[in-house]
């Protein structure tokens, strides 16, 4: 463990971590349910395209939906069985809306398909080929954003100085990374080395909160004889926020609205490292993950390895069971998670924690903002949350953007301390969504306008070309009788010049429109 | 939007009410000192103001068809009433106290949309109204440890409410100016400090007892800062600026300008610095803005006290800066994380 200085960030909260609740048992092995409902949109980007039909029999690990665009991710069958439906199903998403899913009735054999070959010599393999493997295997970032890893690691020749492994896991209750580090530290290190190779990072830092001594110890063992550094950071939410962790470890501030890559840093979650290692070394696609099942409503809170598509309900019944009536189920932690209307929804690649609460805070009527500034004190992004709230509430989105709405990481610190109990984050999300929507609208109308103008220009060009052709024909016809006397070359040049002029006019029209 | 359950799903247990209650608690030493100094009239002012504030808020919200329970129980009206009452001379006619309070609550707060929307400090608006409307009552401070400050409760009540003076007591002999106004008046008439009595010295303030009241407010304010209820920025910048501005004048001519110590511990400076200028709703909210806000209030306090026409300057300085607060905030936005340094 290196003795380095920690660069504290402004604000944040010291929270009860409730982590011991779910770290009493080792990670439970996979439970194989009768049916799996696999959402096609589990990542940021475009929804995957199904490549199987209802009635098809699929094997475990077989591709069932393909990445449809560059920013998208492949999806594989988590177990063998028959495709019974490809339709909209309730999923675990903040919107609460249904989304396209592939339902598989498992045959119980859990029979693997032929997996791609291991890339054991990854150290001497072209990064592009390894990225292809990650893409093929449907690997996505497990730190929260669920961004396709193959895309994130495509640094487009921007130099990466430091690869940071985010092992902070600062949200209360969640322990899936903690347990993973205790259980599989070697795989994490291997995955990290592979990622380092892909992006050409000079060094690797692991940032971890001090409330995970066992994980720190396990990692310490695993990094022996490597140049990886573990940096222990104090417990302070949101130390696991990408920009906050980068600041803690390096003192560097990622530019407002910029990416870590702009300062030569790439962050990856430890869970992602394991998925990367398994995809490269074993050819294993992303079909399962570790999920924390926790909360005071559960009889046996613990971490479990769960197949993507397993119903949350079944998962809890099988592994944990209810001890008390569950008043609220959250997907994720109490600070940034969202509440589920019911639990008959599938686990997805990004599902890190199911928090089943018996005791919940009574919902309180928000009171007016008294401008006490508590929110300013805790905002890690150094914003003025009360002003943002004011602008979001009054639909003054320009001012909200001027006050850096898009630097808000939705950590919830402000709402947590607000004495008036204003659901501040909700207002920020609302404002962001509105701004995105209006931008999209503008883009679309721009696009429509451009298409229209483009069409006009194209028609004009065609018309000009047609006329030029006619003219030329005419000239040729007219010139024919006295062809010998006149200079055919000159006529041809003239005609060509006219064509060029017409083309130029058309081009000019096109340029104007774009 | 309130009905939807949104992250975060856990919150601190603080509330508007608990904050207000803590501030009221922090005012207790000051209240106690003032009662010790000036007697039961202080309590009567407080009582009248609190009752008028709560009643007027209740009636106003009822009238507008709103549910008044949350607003009335959040204790913000009580705090406004207490701050106003503490700034008023004890034993002044009760109806004037009530009028000032009602104005503070209805015009200063509710007409702007209730708590959180008032651009001005409501208590200071009420104070300004009273000062302009009843300059005589507002400058008649009873003398510390005089017959007036020793009135028992029912005598004091009769005097404040019915205007009936106990037999064999002359109003004029019991009241007068505070040390602050006497020194002010004297200096404005170009007397030298050394010729004045009181002469604005520290012993003046301690012997008359006023300094102890200020110290009690200071203690309450320090408690709030230590508890994290309030930031140090406004009080400290205000006090620092009072010290510096009055100190400079004093250095220029210590016989014509009162000492910084006198400015700090007379009148409502301590009350203003810790409890009035810090009203979050009407104050500046950005860290840098708060420093500017406090410093300018301090500046104006000394300037108005030295050359202005009113006995104390806290109310007008605060109101002046309340007007400037949105602008100050706009130009002092903190640097966003990852923004230009
Ligand atoms: S914490 Fe709440 S009440 Fe206080 S300033 Fe922020 S939004 Fe307003
Ligand atoms: S949710 Fe946004 S505004 Fe609130 S504390 Fe977090 S970053 Fe700041």
Describe the structure.
The complex is a heterodimer of chains A (514) and B (341). Chain A contains 14 helices and 16 strands. By secondary structure, chain A is an alpha/beta fold. The longest helix of chain A has 56 residues. Chain B has 341 residues and is mainly alpha-helical. Chain B is 63% helix and 1% strand. In chain B, α2 packs antiparallel against α4, α6 runs antiparallel to α17 and α12 packs parallel to α15. The structure holds iron/sulfur cluster (2 copies).
Oligomer: heterodimer
How far do the termini of chain A sit from each other?
A: 56 Å
Note the gap between the termini of chain B.
36 Å
Fraction of helical residues of chain B? 55-70%
Give the SSE order of chain A as H and E letters.
Answer: EEEEEEEHHEHHEHEHEHEEHEEEHHHHHH
Rounded Rg of chain B: 21 Å
Topology of helices and strands:
The complex is a heterodimer of chains A (514) and B (341).
Chain A: E1 35-39, E2 49-50, E3 57-58, E4 63-66, E5 75-76, E6 81-90, E7 98-106, H1 127-136, H2 149-152, E8 162-167, H3 176-183, H4 185-199, E9 203-209, H5 213-222, E10 229-233, H6 242-250, E11 265-269, H7 270-282, E12 288-294, E13 302-307, H8 312-319, E14 328-331, E15 338-340, E16 353-357, H9 374-378, H10 385-393, H11 397-402, H12 413-417, H13 424-479, H14 488-513
Parallel strand pairs in A: 8-9, 8-11, 9-10, 12-16
Antiparallel strand pairs in A: 1-7, 2-4, 3-6, 4-5, 6-7, 12-13, 14-15, 14-16
Chain B: H1 16-38, H2 40-63, H3 69-73, H4 76-87, H5 94-107, H6 122-133, H7 135-139, E1 141-142, H8 153-162, H9 171-174, E2 175-176, H10 179-188, H11 202-208, H12 210-226, H13 233-252, H14 260-265, H15 269-276, H16 287-307, H17 314-331
Antiparallel strand pairs in B: 1-2
Helix pairs in contact in B: 1-2, 1-4, 1-12, 2-4, 2-5, 2-8, 4-5, 4-6, 5-6, 6-17, 12-15, 13-15, 13-16, 16-17
The complex binds iron/sulfur cluster (SF4) (2 copies).
